[in-house]
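Try it yourself: sequence plus coenzyme A, in.
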Amino acid sequence: MSFILYRLNDLISATDEKELQSFLSSFKCSAEPAAEDFLNRVAIKHENNGISRTYLFVDRDDSGTDIIKGFSTIAFKCLTIDERHKIPETIFEQMNVDRGIAQAYLLGQLAKADGVEKGFGRKMINHSFDIFSKGNGMFGCRVVRLDCRDALIKYYESCGFTAAGKNQTGTLNHMIAII
Ligand SMILES: CC(C)(COP(=O)(O)OP(=O)(O)OC[C@H]1O[C@@H](n2cnc3c(N)ncnc32)[C@H](O)[C@@H]1OP(=O)(O)O)[C@@H](O)C(=O)NCCC(=O)NCCS
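Structure, out:
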């Protein structure tokens, strides 16, 4: 499970634009093509606009070529809490909800490349929590949120998240964890 961690922001400053674009395009995730698309077309724009920060988990093959094993993208995104929410009381109390809004860190993207070993996603989540914990130590905020389809609820629950309701269209589930 070895990897070298790159901040996309650092690569933007240090790498030729075309070379970086081609490196990002090499990432393949057939389970979630939208993640591939985000890395290809959106991640640099969001980085430059200060919307999110992307971290690349990179391995080097025998020929010395860097391979993107996975990536995570983190940001801030507050969460609206519906009055009819079913969040367990012990968690709700720690969310510092103010007028129906909880400030939250967002795990916006999480994807590993085709063929990468089971458990690597969890490793990337742990890394993201290390960053959120640093943010919490510097300027507060205890909630981490992400949005996922039904098929991934159990997985994220096994990673310490709790389901906090659906989005407005009912297509995604808000999952939350407390730092
Ligand atoms: C989510 C992810 C990072 C987890 O990686 P991991 O910790 O190494 O764990 P696994 O790959 O074993 O996935 C955990 C479980 O989720 C399931 N799963 C993963 N991605 C899925 C998807 N897009 N749709 C449905 N199920 C999915 C896996 O089949 C696995 O189920 P199992 O335990 O019954 O075998 C990785 O599976 C991945 O990159 N998936 C594609 C991208 C994605 O869907 N990201 C989540 C967006 S919210």
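One thing you can check immediately is this: The longest helix spans residues 120-139.
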